[in-house]
Amino acid sequence: MKFIAEIDVMPLKELLDPQGKAVASSMKNIGLATIEMVRIGKHIHLELQAGTAEEAEKILQDACKKLLVNAVIEYYEYEIKPA
Amino acid sequence: MKFGIVIFPGSNCDHDIIHVLRNVMHQETIELWHKNPLPKDFTLDDWIILPGGFSYGDYLRAGAIARFSPVMHDVVDFARNGGHVWGICNGFQILCESGLLPGALVRNQNQQFICKNITLKVANDNTSITRGIPKNKILTIPIAHAEGRYIADKKMIDQLLANQQVLFQYCDKNGAINQEANPNGSMHNIAGICNDSRNVFGMMPHPERAAEEALGNSDGRLLLESLLQNALV
Questions:
Q1: DSSP H/E element including B19
Q2: Residue B156 pLDDT
Q3: Does residue B95 sit at the A interface (CB-CB below 8 Å)?
Q4: Measured between alpha carbons, how far is A57 from A76 in angstroms, rounded to an integer?
Q5: A68, A73, A76: best to mutate for the B interface, most B CBs within 10 A
Q6: Nearest-Cα residue of chain B relative to residue A11
Q7: How many domains does one find in chain B?
Q8: pLDDT tens-digit profile of B166-224?
């Protein structure tokens, strides 16, 4: 059975995100000074085969913990559903 | 004793360190292609060096994919058995990603790729690569990275400082460690660390790019000379 996962990987909240900061500071240059804060992460779209929803979630978490996310600097959230 | 230099797809300082070890330091140096296991004749007297570069294009995170290259399984075992492993720049990033060194290297605070000479202070002069450096010597060694800002949680930073695992800190020309002398925003100006057992070393500066008088700077050679002196003891 095919599952589709959408994963958001973000820099830990306590960490400085220089990329987000640079983008936030440029907002005033385009007349959007009310945008006070920007933080930038990654969005990962993933498709996988698994027997059950539980198995699919386990595979997804394994992928996040082993490769997709570095827990020293990032956290993640995801949604997974049958294709 | 010999040196094995791991070559990943995207390594680009591999031949710099090979040249310095072979032609300047006159050491037996072999190339280790990342897809092959460690050669059988590799012993705990030998050193593995993970060179600088952009392994796997820095995709996902710098060093994240190289960590799963076939050779890394053997490199991790080698280090866990007490073998010496030294990561320079991208090699340092790979060692952090693989868990052989604590913490992580993230985007420079100013968002830019920085390529310039910086000055360094030796924080622990009692390791294989620092013991031979003259006391109070301020080293001038180039950096060339976009992801060199060393970070770790407070508990780990405290542990690194208490265990004297910090090897090098960015400093100004007079040796003062301050924010002005911090090129990338690293916590505590950390430029290089070692593990608790002092057999795994990682640093962002490139000693192999400053190891010959012809290049106008041979401060980097002090680290290699130190290493060789210690190996001969």
A1: helix B14-19
A2: 97
A3: no
A4: 14
A5: A73
A6: B106
A7: 1
A8: 999 999 999 999 999 999 999 999 999 999 999 999 999 999 999 999 999 999 999 99
CATH of the domain at B14: 3.40.50.880
In the numeric block, which tokens belong to residue B97? 């990603």
Does pTM surpass 0.90? yes
Q: To the nearest 5 percent, what fractions of chain B are helix, strand and coil?
A: 30, 25, 45
List Cβ neighbours of A74 (8 Å cut-off, separation of 6 or more).
A9, A10, A11, A12, A41
Tell me the C-alpha to C-alpha distance, in Å, between residue B55 and each of A25, A76, B69: 32, 24, 10
CA dihedral B165, B172, B153, B49 (to 10 degrees): -50
Test mutation, B58, B101, B106, chain A, max A CBs within 10 A? B106
Partner residues linked to B139 by β-bridges:
B120
CA atoms within 13 A of residue A35's CA, in its CB half-sphere: 15
Quote ipTM for the complex.
Answer: 0.87
Least Cα separation, residue B49 to chain A (angstroms):
23
Instruction: Give tens-digit pLDDT for B52-69.
Output: 999 999 999 999 999 999
From CA B232, how far away is CA A5, in angstroms rounded? 55
List the end-to-end C-alpha distance of chain A, in Å, as a whole number: 8
Other beta carbons within 10 Å of A27: 15
What order of strands is seen across the sheet that includes strand B166-171?
Answer: B29-33, B3-7, B47-50, B84-88, B200-203, B190-194, B166-171, B114-122, B138-145
**Which range of residues forms the domain containing residue B124?**
3-230
Is residue A70 classed as helix, strand or coil in its secondary structure?
Answer: coil
Distance CA B30, CA B52 (A): 16
- Residue ranges of alpha helices (H) inside A1-83 are 18-26, 53-63
Q: Residue A18: which of B96, B97, B111 has the nearest Cβ? A: B111
